[in-house]
Amino acid sequence: MKINATLPEKGRDLRLDLFRGIANWAIFLDHIPDNVVNWITTRNYGFSDAADLFVFISGYTASFVYARMMIERGFIVGATRLFKRVWQLYVAHIVLFVIYIAAISYLATRFGDSEIIDEFNVAGLVDHATETLGQGLILKFKPVNLDVLPLYIVLMGFFPPVLWLMLRQPDLTMAGSIVLWLVARHFGWNFAAYPAGTWYFNPYAWQVLFVFGSWCALGGARKSMAIIMAPVTLYFCLAYLAFALIMTMAGRFPDFGAMFPHWFYSAFNPNDKTNLAPYRFLHFAVIVVLVIRFVPKTWPGLEWRAFDPLVVCGQQSLAVFCVGVFLSFVAHFTLMMSSGSLLAQILVSVAGIAIMTTVAYYISWSKRQDKPAAKPAAAKPAETKPAEPKPAAEPKPA
Predict the structure, then answer these.
(1) Is 216 in contact with 60 (CB distance < 8 Å)?
(2) Strand partners, 192
(3) Nearest of 38, 51, 24 to residue 335 by alpha carbon
(4) 188 near 237, Cβ under 8 Å?
(5) Second label for 139, Cα 20 to 30 Å away, from 78, 133, 191, 391?
(6) Cα three-residue angle 15-16-21, rounded to 5 degrees
(7) Rounded CA gap, 242 and 238, in Å?
(8) What tens digit of pLDDT does each residue of 310-320 get?
(9) What is the pLDDT of residues 338-366, one digit of tens each?
(10) Which of 45, 393, 64 is nearest to 252 (CA)?
(11) Signed CA dihedral, 309, 84, 98, 134: sign only
(12) Where are the domains of the chain?
């Protein structure tokens, strides 16, 4: 079949790194309960949050990296490179999983706080350790806050055939993804979790954000520029953001929420994150439209030094994400064991972001050291001047 997708231009897109860094910082802050600092994250002002951004950029980046490879070197090579990435994600998840539950168990024993075992959903390890660990290896058992990586692993694992179709029929593939999302919502499809229930991030639903990212990367955004740049689109986007802000605040403050009819209020509260409610997906799509419109790839602000920490954290996203998830648990436990004061909340938040950023800079530095040093240019031989003729000897006097 003919390739109908438009491949992205070669070269790094700093927007991806910047917004992925923002997502990692926001996920860390949002995972700390009763933390005033997480009021700076987007989840408090609209329907979507950092998780939506993380999944969208993951789909965009996967297409950005592997689409050209699949075209030039074939489906098999492209698929094997994608599966290599899946293996890296799986190993990272298992390492984080083991460290996470070990830390929770140690702190619960050390401080005699058995409630923390129930709070972080690791109680099954006490009574059925072997079975629970086995279920963790197949991604069915997940402690609290360890839901995003398993979702990412599943989406990347099924991505090779999706990418093959996206390269040939991008609009049809995007439409198929939307149909799967809506059908899954209608029939209640989801993956089973252990010991009961379903996945917090329903892969059947959240795949639409991943595929949406791929579609944007492979020409969808470029083909839609006339719509994106239209004045009516801007007005609609701003109006919808204002509406999302109002309904989100209604959910945060009961007295304000009581001002709306119950049937209207309950349509948006609580926010259906598990199955990715249509109003949530639309909210994120509106943000994407505004970013494309006002933050082009060539925006000079992407080079500002103030954004360097975020960009570097985005470039080392997997490691920073894993560190952030662990640090969010440490921060939560620290606040539980301390006064939980406003100052303590600010300190643990700032300290966590500082550690994540330090890890990102170290990994970037370490990777540069692994590359062979550039050989110095060979010095040009010095130009030799022609020897000056010796003056003729004067005749000696007789």
Answers:
(1) yes
(2) 198
(3) 38
(4) no
(5) 78
(6) 100
(7) 6
(8) 999 999 999 99
(9) 888 999 999 999 999 999 999 999 999 99
(10) 45
(11) positive
(12) 41-303
